[in-house]
Fold each of these.
Amino acid sequence: MRILLVEDDKLLAQGLVTALERLHYRVEHCVSGKQALQAAENSLFDVMILDLGLPDGLSLPVIRKIRSTNQSLPILVLTAWDHLDTKVDVLDAGADDYVLKPCDVREIEARLRVILRRHQQRKQDLLISNELILDLQRHECSFQSQSVHLTTREFLLLKELMLHPGKILSKQHMEEVNSGWNGDNEGNSLEVHIHNIRKKTAGYVIKTVRGFGYMLKSHDEN
Ligand code: CA
């Protein structure tokens, strides 16, 4: 799952990136409303975390613009202003929720899960596909009722596929989930992670769509 974090406070942003990545999210960071709109246009994200006070002052127009072009991107706003008017403006512009600063990453993560549950019309933090279950709250995986230990990257990649059942996710998108915009070189390549997930579950769980990317095995296939 990819998060676009728009926050000009570098220290706060870095803390959030580190903490959220530890919780199996891939986070891309930018610092202005203008960059946020460009990023949302050029790349696929599952949720945007948007600071309300940006240097170019564009947060509310950013929300409105995104709502006018990409209805479905969930937006969680971070704000330091605890005023009723601000909260109403944020929600009226089309944001899904807001968190007051200073904020704890656990609260942000809980709000993200709620937003995504609502968005995907799920009642629980469980992603289920055939015999595979991912528990997004506990960060646990099971296959055929057996617990499977996945590394952070493996969990992140499998979660991405399970969040988009029946869809082919391009290799480029999966590379971005694995390594981020800056192509961080830590850890294994995408192919190695996919190989390891298959080894820990079953070879048929993830399909390679030659020339395009990867997809989760759907219910009607064997
Ligand atoms: Ca700010």
Amino acid sequence: MRKKERKRDYNLQWNKNTTLLLVGSLFLLMICLALEATHVYRLISTYRGFVDSSITGQTGLDAELVSSNLNADIQVIRSTAEQLQQNENYDMDELQIYKLLLGVRNKSGLDRVVLIMRDGTTYSSERYSTMSGLEKLIDQSAEDGSATVAKTYFDFGDGMASYCIMMPVVHKGIVQGYLFGLNSTTQLLHGTETDTYSQISRSYVINEKGTIMATSNSDVMFVLQNDDFYTDVLKELSEEENRDLMEEQLRKAFAQGTTSVLTFHAKSDDWKIFFAPLSEPRGWTYVNVVKESDVAALVKGIKVESTVSMALVILLMLLLCFIIFKFVMSEQREMLKLAFEDSLTQAPNERYFLAQAQKLLKDYADYAYCVISFDIQNFRYLNESYGHMKADELLRLMVKNVEKDLSVREGYARIGADRFVALLVDDGRIIERVKHLEERVSKAASEEMINYPIKIKSGFYEVTDRKENVAAMIDKANLARKSVIPQTKDLVATYEDSLMEETRRREFIESKMEMALIAGEFVPYLQPKWDMKNNHIIAAEALVRWKQGLGEIIPPGEFISIFETNGFIEKIDFYMLEQVCKYLRKMIDEGREVYPISVNQSRYLLHDPNYTLNVQQIMLKYKIPKSLIELELTETVFFQERERMIEVMEELKRMNMDLSIDDFGSGFSSLNLLRDMPFDVLKIDKGFLNETNTSESGKFILKKIIEMADGLGVRVICEGVETVEQAQMLMEIGCNYAQGYLYSKPIPMGEFIEKYNVPINGQAAHE
Ligand code: C2E
Ligand code: MG
Ligand code: MG
């Protein structure tokens, strides 16, 4: 799967979580909305109820206020009338009466105070204003001599109608005249206009008959002229057919003298009529007429405010959610990247591959698959020679080119330094694709100044059981890759079950080796080297055997190569050298015949800077003459690590050690070796001998090698001589020494001692 699809895959994982989060948030949001809507609804109805009761309360207060305004005026008129009544002789002249009336007007809030005598003489606080028309009201005067409040239409400059308080002046049971106190209805309603709802309500003061005594609304002066609340106001509020019913309801309600409210449905709107009785004069009512839509408009403000604030809160919530989502998304992406991506190359890592491969194998059940494990041959060398930066670049090139080649049905991962794994559709072209990849990476690398042929080493595992653990598949492909022999051309290997057995064997050996060394389970066997001409032993080779607890013997072929890869061979080689030295010392000390013993030395020893010193120390420890020890180095080592080999050999030669080249002819033998290396013995590999059996040319070459060695003063010994014919043939071509089953197999030391280390009469042969 390519990077792009991988990203999509990450999104997929993100989406799952986000959808959950989103659905959860939306659900919460819905709940919030529902709660908020209920809250607003309840707030509005509460507010409406509050407005209603508030206007009702306010109406009661206003009624009290009007009542006290009126009573204040009545009191003034009453006390003035009483003052006049006490003037028994009525001997006040016009000026005095005028002064009295003026004084009363000035002290009270009245606009005008008028006295009309029985004979029609009129006195006014405005000296020259007669206020004609007032006398008509005298008829309305109460017969019991109490104050009467009537309506007049004098305008005292505020555009409003006026009212008057009328009081008879009685003296000795005879009405002498009438005292009038006039005032603007503005004064009557003084104080009510400041209430909270005055903006939306029309206020009326009506008397017991329903006559409008005062109104807050100057625009409806005409109403005052028509006088009647039920006629004029209800006409405006209701349809004709409802009017009678309304009037009846209102009259009844007003007559009860309680503070309350009535709602009416009218032409275009609903109306609310709030009313409260005036405590004085009796039967009067203070009325507030309010349009429902005006109350609704008041409430609307709250509605709008609540809705806007709710919308804002929701918007903020959404914004917050969005920011959180963004944050979570990027965090999650980073986490997924960390969890599933290799930071150096951005390639998927093994963890990602395990899941992805499993999914691909399931999703594309019809396709045959192959797991391939591959690495870059000699990457360590590239790393050291070109530096880490270039090597990293090479890895990135690898990733880029691998990605280019993959289909959506395939996946890959970087699982280690230069190690990759891929799940490929097995279409019979996989090796071809790997070669193609190798070419592309090599070309791209050369453009990056890495002038080294890039070789890809790969191991294949054909997926047969799709249910198998992907990690196990990778292990198998890895095993195949590791089994690739570096010198081969194609650098490709396929997994076989034997590889797994090998691995198990390797693991078993590795788990036991350390303890086995301590327990002395590694023992040297000795195989004689033979002088064929004179038919006697001349030397021997020490060959390691692993003798396990139960007596089972493991041959070196099963563990040497493992020890060579894990480095344990170093310990074995020194151990063997020491065992051989110990044995020789014992033989010498016991005065037995001794023969030089050759000991195999691994190439890994060459990398130990103390190698030659350690050899010397062991020899010195057991006081072994140099001539009794020969060190065998295999031919492959010469070929691969020539320089180092020459260096070490020269050092050993300076120490007078005998050196031999083992397995000559088994690998890429070079005659130059014979020239350049300071060695004493050439051991011809047994494979070479097999070759001479069948071909004349092989025999010829062997003869020439022997001649050349002779010429160089090097002894030649042939390994693996099993038959008399072979021995004969060797002697014919000039090789007199042999090592092989014909003479003896490698035998335990005790047996060897018995057979060959025979006691020398008298004294030891070597000191
Ligand atoms: P090598 O050093 O070439 O030893 C000779 C091998 O040839 C021995 O195998 C020996 O048993 C076998 N051989 C000798 N004569 C005949 C014959 O006539 N016919 C056949 N078929 N084989 C014959 P062995 O003991 O199994 O050792 C195998 C290899 O293991 C050795 O080859 C050597 O490379 C390595 N080796 C053994 N011991 C040590 C050790 O202590 N250290 C190291 N580094 N390598 C060791
Ligand atoms: Mg050997
Ligand atoms: Mg050999």
Amino acid sequence: MIWAKEETMSRSEIEELQLARLKAVVARVYGKVPAYRAKMDAAGVRPEHIRTLKDLKLLPFTVKKDLRDHYPFGMFAVPKSELVRIHASSGTTGKPTVVGYTRNDLKVWTEVVTRIAAMGGASANDVAQICFGYGMFTGALGLHFGLENLGAAVCPTSSGNTQKQIMYMKDFETTLLVATPSYALHIAEVALGMGIDPKKDLKVKVGLFGGEGMTEPMRQEMYRLWGEDMAVTQNYGMSELIGPGVSGECLELCGMHVNEDHFIPEIIDPVTEEVLPPGEKGELVITCLTKEALPMIRYRTRDISRLMYEPCKCGRTTVRMENLSGRSDDMLIIRGVNVFPTQIEEVLLSIPEIGPHYEIIVDRKNHLDTMEIKVELTDDTLLDSYAQLGALEKNIRSRLKVVLGLDAAIKLVAPRSLKRFEGKAKRVTDLRQM
Ligand code: DLL
């Protein structure tokens, strides 16, 4: 179902709306946020220089460090008294990134999440279980209000306590699951261990996944565990930009539709910072057009994607983002070769004898980078056959070598022996940085 008329506007209508909103937001941050004004003055740009959408590239980028340097509220464009919600993203080091919402920001957030839920097959008839952690993470409350707005019955079960999740799922006849893809796989695995087959014994028919990437082989794994008839989509967002709701996949599964009346996406070369032509892959940069409390201007997401402007079969006219190939700061450089964990995942998941759980350990020994990949077998009877294990290991190693151009040590481990995640999965340990 297409929720809003803004999803089907003509290109010229979208651009006209974007330009009017861009001019207004740039004037507002210039007037209200000293940090933006200082950056724009240093770049020699003033709000009146924004005459067409092409002028967007005159504006300086905003980066995570700007938010950290002005922690907690220094980048906000409204006084604290106008805030009605505060979230934060923890990150791995230093202070968290703090984000805030006015009453109108919450309205916009609810609207954009409602759109992506409807896009992914959700409806007012769903019983929606939200298995994201409730708290400072934007995922849970973001999906919560969007799904309620759609009319679904929302169960805020949060993450963790997986057996209880499954009990609710069965007893409430939950039809829609919200989770990170890795947690959704874990829930299915725990259910099977409890003698409950998600395909037959549960009624979940819509999976709205996000917060981390879902590669195509991972989607296949989702169908295998939850049922071929499940609508499996993913959606994208980021705390700094709003939370979930920036973009989402429709049921055609050909990229994530950006809510372009609220966000302008650009793709840049992360090194030269040049804007790349449509269709080229690079770092995603987003400008928030309607946020009142924290309007991010040309925010460098570090996420790697591509923009597709061709019309989609679903009828929406909004630009689509290709599913992410990773983050520029996830990229590992191993013996000079650039490696994205998603490339490794795609190879691993194309091999039937191994499951979707893996761990990548990078180290440096005698000045040489090493990479070890621990992979779980799907069937532990293989562990008894030394010859079969050896052949499988060799097969994985040579397939990875073709894709990555690198040799990796493979360690096959017993089913269910690697760590499971209830939120975003952590697959890489880089011991070189420790
Ligand atoms: O993860 C917001 C969100 C919650 C989106 C739930 C969708 C669903 P942060 O915690 O700030 O916000 O993390 C943002 O997560 O820059 C991406 O690297 C990653 N990410 C989010 N969605 C996807 C996705 C939320 N569909 C960071 N595919 C982003 C790949 C994703 N990565």
